Each structure stands twice: as structure tokens, then as C-alpha cells.
Amino acid sequence: MNNKVYHRIEEVAGNVITLRADGVRYQELAEVESPQGASLAQVIRLAGDRVSLQVFAGGRGIPTDAKVRFLGHPMETSFSEALLGRVFTGSGQPRDRGPRLTENMIEIGGPSVNPAKRIIPRNMVRTGIPMIDIFNTLVESQKLPIFSVAGEPYNPLLARIALQAEVDVIILGGMGLKHDDYLYFRETLEEQGALARSVLFVHTAADPTVECLMVPDICLAVAEQFALKNERVLVLLTDMTNFADAMKEIAITMEQIPSNRGYPGDLYSQLAARYEKAVDFDSAGSITILAATTMPGDDVTHPVPDNTGYITEGQFYLRNGRIEPFGSLSRLKQQVNGATRDDHRTIMNTMIQLYAGYKETLEKQSMGFRMSAWDSKLLVYGERFEQEMMDLSVNIPLETALDRGWAMLADCFEPAETGIASKLINQFWPKAHAETPDNGRQEERNHLEAVASSD
Q: 81, 246, 411, 452: which has the fewest C-beta neighbours closer than 10 Å?
């Protein structure tokens, strides 16, 4: 441990101070004493004996003769069951006016779990959201981003998942949140009784930039400790683009050579170091990561979503207040959706194929083509699919959602028109639609044909 106190700061640039010191480690903490009081700082760059630190409280007012004392350890946070129900800042300080926790301190930002201790993902995480549970099933220990543009309800979506996900512990990491968003998360979890199993680490837009960089690390360090206690942990991060922007801000201050669009060259490695903490332990619990990633200008080739896509196991696209079925992907869903119910994969594939047909019919309709009876059926089906499946207000268990899918198919199509195997038709096709040879819907077909002929 470096016990020396240094009295000479060579440079102050924004929130970064630079001095010369020996025996210092990367990401080590230091205490900076100035006329404004003491503040923590973290080592963010080493070049020989030249050390740069990011000051948590900002560099304003720090004189060149301020005292700098290195603490000999990186950022640490307390871990215990007392964390549950609490709200902290990005640096682990209480935001809820509760007592500061100092027992059982653990380091943050450690390496990912040894692959030998991991098992293949095999358990579904139920959310009550049909567009996830049926079509892009979330799997325990998966890492998935939610790609969205600013203004989409990605924070309300994360809050709903926090309330409904069948997990033991929820850890929410907020980065650059507006104060209203922070209050929304806290009040929603509290009102619905989910705060007792949650821990919130929140960095708001008004807080120091360096705290934004700590949020994923502190969340994942705590999540790992809970997982080692055999808990199923869901980590919700929002917004990873703010995290990357904080990295860019510090890189610019440090005069680093920029890479794509000004982001640092190690953006991929920095993102991967966090996402790879998702794990299903062979003899303990698990960590599942869902992270909102906003796309400036709805550009998926932006460096943050572009790099994220290479790291994660799929993505959810949030557009027009809905999870889009096209583009959204859970690469691990086949690990679990074959074991849920015999008809799960069939319903998933059939309904998406028919919805794709609906989108093509909309294009034909917009260009003035004549609508056939089949097109009219697709139009009815597509509208119902958007209202009864895609709408994020829909909150039903997986089995109920599958039954609803069968009911929608039976209301809009003949069994033979769906292309579903007879074995599943006989087992799951709603009985009310199979009582008569014409399925009791001759009047409906006549109406559809009349609509088509009028077009």
C-alpha cells in the first residue's frame, strides 16, 4: 500500500488531475484534500510515474498544492442482505437517507467467472410479456440489450420486467437518469411491493461523470455475491449509451486518440467486460443482464449498439411503444422453449409468419392493389396481433398467451390455412371453432369476401 501523501498536482483538466507518484495501481482510489473539503478520486491512467485521477466531486477549486493520499485498494462496496430495499448513488453512497453500510466490503470491477464454473443456460425467466415469453424467450444467465430510440418507454419496460420477472433479486443500475426517471423506478417498485427484493444504484445526469462509469461494476459485483448465495439475480442497466458517453468524455479530457465517432478504441472491451458477467453457476445461482441501449438517430450502426450486438446473445428492438418481432432475437430461446409446452415453437413460428404476411398486405393496400379474401383475413389478424400480443400493457402468463394465440388463429383462419400439423391442431385448436364443418364462421367469411370485392 502506498502511504505517501503527495502535495504537487501538475495538471488539472476538467475533473481529471495529474501528478507523479510511485507504486500506484490502475483504478486505485485516492483521497484529495482541498479547501472545498475531501473527495475521492480514482486512477484512470498510468504512464510511468505519471498518474491521472478522475475526481468524483469534480476538479473545480482544486489547487496545485492539494494533498493526494492513495488508499491502496480499488473501489469497494458493502455486501449484505441489508442492501435489499435500499437506494444508492453510483459510488455506493446512500441516496435514500438510510445508514451507510461499511461491513463486508468487496472490490468491484473484477474478472468474469471462470468458464469451468459455468453451466449451459437451461431455465426460462418468465416476465408476463408475450413478446418476450413466447417469441423471444429470456433465458437465465442471458445478456440482452434493449435497442431503442430516445423517447421510447424502455424504462417503463424495465420497471415492468422488474415487477414481474420470476427471479429472487433485482439490481437496477441507472446511468445518466433524469430525476423523474429515478423517481419513477423507485416509486413503482415501492408501490408494487418489489423494492424489498431490489437494490438500486442510481447515477443521475447531475452527478459526477466518474460515478456513471462505476454503476455497471458495482451492480455486477453485488449481483455476483447474491448469485453465490444461490439467488437468481436479474440486473437491469439503463442506459449503456450514457455509460459509453461518459467513457468518451473522460477519453477526450485525457486527450486520447479517438476511434469511431470519438469513442475510445477499447469501447468493445469495456462493454464486453460488463456483459460477460452474466453467468449460471454450476453449484449456485445466476446473473441475467438486460440493458437498455439508446440508438442516436435510430442508427443501429452507431458504435455503442454496433459493438453491443457482437457481445450479447440477441437483442430486443423497441419501436412505437412495442417490442418489434422483426429484428428482435433471443439466441438462447431454443434452449428452453421446447420444454415449456408442446405447441410453443409452433405458435411462435406460425404467428410471426402470418404477421409478416400482414405487413406485406399493408404495403399492397397502401399502393392501391385489390385485396383478396386472404388479405382481408390477414388484416384482421394483424390488428389483433398488435393489440393482444405486441401491446406492452398485456400482462399474462405464458400458457395463457399460448391459448390466446390459438384463439386468434381460430378466429381468423381455417386450420388448414395456418400450416400447423394435424397432431397439434387436434390437441390445441379451440373446440368452439371445430363444432361444425364450416367452423361456424360462414357469415364472417362472406363478410370478408364482400370487403375484398369492394376493394
A: 81
